[in-house]
Design brief:
mainly alpha, single chain, globular, 12 helices
């Protein structure tokens, strides 16, 4: 897939323009958005992603169009899981509803920056070392197992979210206020500079973004090797999260099987990556440095079908169980 420099620059400029508009709007009037505004905004982002994928299909062929849709759906599902952790952080740190938009925007900007860095690192690693797919695949399988264990611990009554080490260190070492001062990270009181809880929120969101970026980039490189599609899939997956948070915040809590579904998804992509690495093997201690003949290269259309099926089953099963639990609680 050939992407010219001006297309890269235009894509990044449009994304930055949308972010700048969001920042200016929220800086002028911090508020909790209406459900109608969230629905319109989210619908616009989803429609834009679908239209972009259709454009890739027409201009670059079905292979790249399917790769974009598979990557976008995977990144979107991982971003929704990220959003659920954001929801827990907001509740834990008691962020006022009027300030949650600012906190979410900070989280989204940090996610974009971190994923941009990892996209570049991933592309460079793939170009330099073909065997990096072994590492990506093993890491995704490990992450899938960790998600499955996390789901099991949660089902047994484990805690949803605990402050990370960096947040706990900041609480102990840096003088802070107990109340928010709007979106400001620090305030000056009685001649002393104090940090506000918003700084703790920013740190918590940033560390969460870092962990999710480590998972999401190997996952999408298992579906496409095109850095431009990796970038655009991440952009479209992240840009509508702020609206999604306010639109279906309660629904996020009812997606009880989301982590389990993502573990299946990441496990599948991890196995796909290892099979791809075996299919194009160059490591001298594996099959004498020759490709492994029995290892199939899983086609992207099959990956897209598996992704859609897993997400559909996860959503339906989650909502069915949540409704059953609600009826039982009512009785």
């Amino acid at each position: 897939m050939h992407v010219t420099s001006w297309v890269w620059l235009l894509t990044i400029a449009v994304a930055l323009a949308f972010l700048a508009a969001d920042i200016v709007l929220l800086a002028r009037r911090p508020h909790e958005p209406s459900l109608a505004a969230c629905a319109v905004g989210l619908g616009g982002y989803v429609a834009a992603a679908l239209a972009f994928g259709a454009g890739v299909l027409v201009l670059s062929g079905s292979r790249y169009g399917i790769e974009f849709y598979a990557g976008w759906l995977t990144e979107y599902s991982l971003s929704v899981d990220n959003l659920f952790v954001f929801l827990l952080i907001m509740a834990k740190l008691k962020v006022p509803r009027s300030l949650q938009q600012e906190a979410l925007l900070i989280g989204i900007v940090l996610a974009l920056v971190l994923r941009g860095v990892f996209i570049g690192i991933g592309a460079a690693a793939i170009n330099a070392f073909a065997w990096v797919f072994y590492l990506f695949g093993a890491f995704l399988i490990y992450t899938a197992a960790k998600l499955a264990r996390g789901y099991a611990a949660h089902a047994e009554g484990g805690e949803d979210y605990r402050d990370g080490r960096l947040v706990r260190w900041l609480r102990r070492r840096i003088p802070s206020t107990s109340d928010f001062a709007g979106p400001r990270l620090t305030v000056k009181r009685d001649g002393r500079r104090l940090v506000t809880p918003m700084l703790l929120v920013t740190v918590a969101l940033g560390t969460t973004d870092l962990l999710f970026a480590l998972d999401s980039i190997p996952a999408i490189y298992g579906l496409t090797h095109e850095p431009y599609l990796v970038l655009t899939a991440n952009l479209f997956a992240l840009m509508g999260l702020r609206q999604l948070y306010f639109l279906i915040g309660d629904l996020l809590r009812r997606l009880v099987y989301l982590s389990l579904g993502l573990s299946v998804l990441l496990g599948f992509i991890g196995v796909k990556l290892i099979l791809h690495a075996l299919h194009e093997n160059t490591l001298p201690f594996v099959n004498g440095g020759e490709p492994v003949g029995w290892a199939p290269d899983v086609p992207t259309w099959l990956s897209l079908a598996v992704i859609v099926a897993v997400l559909a089953v996860t959503t339906v099963a989650s909502l069915t169980r949540s409704a059953r639990l609600a009826r039982s609680a009512g009785r």
